[in-house]
Amino acid sequence: MRWLVVLLGLFAALPALAVNPDERLTDPALEARARSLSRELRCLVCQSESIDDSNADLAHDLRVLVRERLKAGDTDAQVLDYLRARYGDYVLLEPPVERATWLLWFGPGAVLVLVVLGVGLAALRRRPVAPVPLDTQERARLDALLRDGS
Amino acid sequence: MSQLEARSRGRFALALLPVFGFLLLIGFFAVTLIKEEFYGHDPSELPSAMIDKPAPDFALPALLEDRPGLARADLGGKPALVNFFASWCAPCRHEHATLAGFAASGRVPVLGIAYKDKPADSRRFLAELGDPYQRVGVDADGRTAIDFGLYGVPETYIVDGAGKIRFRWVGPLTQEALEQEILPRLAALGDK
């Protein structure tokens, strides 16, 4: 019985939230926007985590900063631009779609289209070989077989 | 027959194309990996988005009684080195002698910003290791650092005579980094 409880406890374990209670805004709508923005922003210290997930000191400061900007009336885009001006596009976990990132965004799709086109063209160009007609001997044998079978 | 042979040879070359592509990719990754080994290039080191942009606006209170704090108005006029440090930061301790040596040469002013540190601790740090700074500001909440685009201490910035950020060095300033990265850039800015 006890091991069952432990097992259930293990499965119920949730990832600890990095966002501390004292950072949260009282306005739930603003807090929701802050959370979704935080998930889009890279923690510059840990680099593969969002600031929403990271326990780094800088991530904490940036979470507080995002909430301050929102409280001051910034739009989501303004908050992102504020941080991009200081840390560059790298602060965004999802790179923006622009000329320099076209290859990144559309490259894989383009390769797929090229491959499908290539394979399709190759299949079309391979003409089916016309079957050689039966000669009289074969014809007679086939007819005989068909007759016997019915 | 020869036509058929030529066609099958073409097919063979086409089939090798993905293999070549794969080798190209491996080569690219290998170079990226080896680069760190040979040139000491750290792939996690970020380029600054603030290069060639004016230094951000700030006004920081003084850390020491005998020297003023640091504000945006103190930058510009002539090139300067702005160094973010903290007493809790081990690499800062490591770079301090290099920084002091450079400051003693009197080439350009070295300005300090104590990043998210208790002023008493910063003062003890400087008393213990020496104080290379002309001015030291206290950035208690780290906001000025964020405006500089800092993501860890120590970081050292070259600010030119027009008040623009021209270069950032991430991590402890070594003698090598000073000679190869900082001094040539200062010379190009005409600090003499």
CATH architecture of the largest domain in chain A: Orthogonal Bundle
Q: Please count the helical segments of chain A.
A: 6
Average pLDDT of chain B, to the nearest integer? 91
How many domains of chain A, as an integer? 2
Instruction: Name the largest protein-protein interface in this structure.
Output: A-B, 14 and 16 residues
Sum this structure up briefly.
The complex is a heterodimer of chains A (150) and B (192). Chain A is mainly alpha-helical and 150 residues long.
Please give a structural write-up.
The complex is a heterodimer of chains A (150) and B (192). Chain A has 150 residues and is an all-alpha fold. In chain A, helix 2 (28-40) packs across helix 3 (57-71). Chain A folds into 2 domains: 14-91, Cytochrome C biogenesis protein (Helicase, Ruva Protein, domain 3, Orthogonal Bundle); 98-128. Chain A contains 6 helices and no strands. Chain A is elongated. The mean pLDDT of chain A is 88. Chain B is 44% helix and 17% strand. The termini of chain B are far apart. Chain B is an alpha/beta fold and 192 residues long. The radius of gyration of chain B is 24 Å and the shape is elongated. Chain B contains 5 helices and 7 strands; from the N terminus they run αβββαβαβαββα.
